[in-house]
Sequence to fold (502 residues):
Amino acid sequence: MSARSPRPSEYGTLGDVRCGEGQPLANSEINRSGARDECGVFGVWAPGEEVARLTYFGLYALQHRGQESAGIATCDDGAILVYKDMGLVSQVFDDGTLSSLSGHMAIGHVRYSTTGASSWENAQPTLGPTATGTVALAHNGNLTNTLALAERAGLHGDGDQRHRASCASPTDTAVLTALLRGDLSAENPPNLADKAQEVLRELHGAFSLVFMDEHTLYAARDRHGLRPLVLGRLDNGWAIASETAALDIVGATFAREIEPGEFITIDHDGVRSTRFAEPAPAGCIFEYVYLARPDTRIGGTSVMAARTDMGRALARAHPVEADLVIPTPDSGTPAAIGYAHESGIPFAQGLVKNAYVGRTFIQPTQTIRQLGIRLKLNPLREVIGGKRLVVVDDSIVRGNTQRALVRMLREAGASEVHVRISSPPVKWPCFYGIDFASRAELIANGLSVEQIRENIGADSLGYVSLDDMVYATQIPATQLCTACFTGNYPASVPSDFFDKGA
Fold:
């Protein structure tokens, strides 16, 4: 079967909805909440527009949030069609594919798996039956009570085998899809909107959702607003996206953020909003540090401006005599600009990034693997030779990247390498959808700053303080999640997540 052709198991019409066949969820998979994704979601309601193409460009703008698989679902004349495959958005879709995805509304997803299998079965959107029709769903985040939800949905234990096999992927997204199906034999089942709000109240953890049935586009955000989600206005409809940059790309005007604990519906009558939970805002601060595009705004704050201010704070807190400030591209660039402006040290591009190296399906040989960071970055010897460098990056997780980078810069002729990090030491794992190492693997969890400096081989090392990082976001500290730096988790995390070394 061609990679360009729709997978039969994902083609659904009213009364003919199927999911790929799969195995029941295993205990270990559920306890780790399946795949912890840093993903991107997009939705559009625009009768008369080419909704699949709008979604394609929206996903293109969100490609940085997921590079392993991409998918689009559209609805036209009571039929929902899902097309998804492994690869980048530009690899999965072509002109012919997009032309076949007609309709008046669509949702899309880009995925980056962190613990679940990187496979077509785990790609999104998912598709499933409900008591009143069909649901296609795309999810960004990570649930922390998936085990209980899976048992309730019959996806684990002694539940009905038909329910356990109703979706292929052992992910929290599959569990959500199964929960939304409701009782297919009920005489007077609730509509999808009512069923969804019932399900949403039972979810713990992080989720930003876009989903649809044959008639309506829906979106929801967890009560803490851990993952971003925004609403935009089109000339002839509405768009929903993980980031404002995606709205810009499709020509949508930013309307507002979807609020924590909010559930919205969009149809021919417009946009309607209800609350399924009391909001307790705790947006992920790492969106400002690294995850979001610099041209995105979150909570009214420019991500580019926040990162630049983090760099300024770094320069004030950790000055050093040096010849050049260089970023680790691209994530360290805004903070490096801020550091250079504040310190008066010239900014330079001392590293060239290979734009075509992402998450690859072709495993390198051991010889190539040892080259490590050289696959992605190459030093400009004529720029850095004999220079004292300030190298700015967004974070240190395990320390492997910085260790290799410092070594490479010295080999290229740098006389000194001073590392500056625009976030505090990462000491705790994330359970809300970001790929961080376990506590045992986090270098800052067992070493002091001086010991980390020795470990990576830098001449000096400085981190931005938690207070300076928070101040740069212009968001009150009480409305931000800083768990990866402090261990204070806003949403409940089962103790066995830590017991398993997560």
Q: What stands out?
A: Residues 52 and 99 are 8 Å apart (CA to CA). The first strand starts at residue 11 and ends at 13.
